[in-house]
């Protein structure tokens, strides 16, 4: 099967995500003095990956290359990138010498983010399996934009805390970015559940 250009770009974004995850996995906050540059590299990788998300969607719509594979693959890769970033944010690599996680991301926040993505992926997959299109809504796109801003913001602030960002300012930057992600993700979950009520209605009817 020939994979069209938008889907090739989406697969390229998956490759960038793997490199991004590798960079975060190798980073250690306790060796910040030597490894801070890794956060800058991860920041750039995330931004480039996010931009390819815009590009593949634009090309698919402009050249009428929207496919069932693309409707599933594109949001799936987005979820892998975002969920992977927030999961790694809770890892030991971001714990400083005092035992504090410098990202401000808590495990329960990741549960909300990952849980929402798994739920929506399941709903989308079910709809596609019965021939019913289930494209991303404006709420889902806003959620993705917030997440895509929050993750690189956290990386940039940690990389330059004390230089570009005074520590009190850095703390609030991270808190706002992380909490905005959690709140918008939760609201988006509610929207998709309401939007998918036909599934539950049909199940009850049978």
Structure description:
- This protein has a single domain, classed as Up-down Bundle (Four Helix Bundle (Hemerythrin (Met), subunit A)), CATH 1.20.120.1760.
- Helix content is about 75%, strand content about 0%.
- The mean pLDDT is about 85.
- The chain is built from 7 helices and no strands.
- It is mostly helical.
- The chain has helices at about 5-25, 30-60, 70-90, 105-130, 140-160, 165-195, 195-205.
The succession of helices and strands, N to C, reads: HHHHHHH
Distance between the termini: 37 Å
CATH superfamily: CDP-alcohol phosphotransferase transmembrane (TM) domain
Fraction of residues in helices? over 70%
CATH uppermost class: Mainly Alpha
Sheet of most strands? none
Oligomeric state of this protein = single chain
Supply Rg: 18 Å
Total number of domains = 1
Number-wise, the strands total 0
- Report the average pLDDT across residues: 87
The helix-and-strand class reads mainly alpha
Strand percentage, roughly? under 5%
Low-confidence stretches: none
Kindly identify the CATH topology: Four Helix Bundle (Hemerythrin (Met), subunit A)
Give a concise summary.
The protein is an all-alpha fold.
């Amino acid at each position: 099967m020939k994979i069209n250009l938008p889907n090739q770009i989406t697969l390229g974004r998956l490759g960038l995500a793997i490199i991004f995850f590798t960079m975060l996995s190798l980073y250690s906050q306790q060796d910040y003095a030597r490894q801070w540059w890794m956060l800058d590299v991860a920041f750039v990788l995330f931004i480039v990956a996010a931009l390819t998300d815009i590009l593949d969607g634009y090309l698919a719509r402009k050249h009428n290359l929207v496919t069932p594979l693309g409707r599933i693959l594109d949001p799936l890769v987005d979820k892998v990138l975002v969920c992977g970033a927030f999961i790694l944010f809770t890892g030991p690599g971001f714990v400083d010498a005092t035992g504090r996680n410098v990202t401000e991301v808590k495990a329960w926040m990741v549960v909300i983010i990952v849980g929402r993505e798994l739920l929506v992926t399941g709903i989308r997959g079910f709809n596609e399996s019965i021939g019913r299109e289930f494209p991303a809504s404006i709420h889902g796109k806003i959620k993705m934009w917030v997440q895509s801003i929050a993750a690189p913001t956290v990386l940039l602030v940690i990389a330059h805390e004390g230089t570009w960002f005074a520590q009190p300012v850095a703390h609030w930057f991270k808190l706002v970015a992380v909490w905005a992600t959690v709140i918008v993700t939760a609201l988006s979950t509610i929207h998709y559940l309401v939007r998918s009520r036909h599934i539950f209605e049909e199940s009850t009817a049978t």
